[in-house]
Amino acid sequence: MESLIKSLIAALGGKIGKEAIIFIISMIPILELRGGLLAAGPAWLNVPLQQAIPLCIIGNIIPVPFILLLITPIFNWMKTTKLFAPMVNKLESKAMSKSDKIERYEFWGLVLFVGIPLPGTGAWTGALIAALLGVKFKKAFPAICIGICVATVIMSILSYGLLGMIFG
Fold it and tell me: Is Transmembrane there in the keyword field (predicted)?
């Protein structure tokens, strides 16, 4: 994740502002809010926390409704093609391999899955799993938003607290 963040900062730096960089990073799968707050912190872009938090949250939330509402019909169509069917099947099986807690506890499972910053978790994967499990939008979207807020607290402490003491 660190090398990807550094590469994005290097590629975008000088072309767009720091705020736009962390917003874009927060929208990218895998990196999401976690990567956005790391990039915003004192170790790299040194964007003030009160400015970074809303940018990262909004950037991370924007893709979620599209994933929840559109990914199932898109995947169903892609599965009818020879070219995309293997990729979709692989994505689905990878996502579903992480679905047990979400399936079992639904709302709170989704909150924790999105909120706890571990590899392979986050809003993108949580939204994909929720869509594949058929979790209703009215239940999935608020759970993912709460999970993003939990991740914000954890990553703010890590990025600005712990790393802030080292690099600040």
Answer: yes
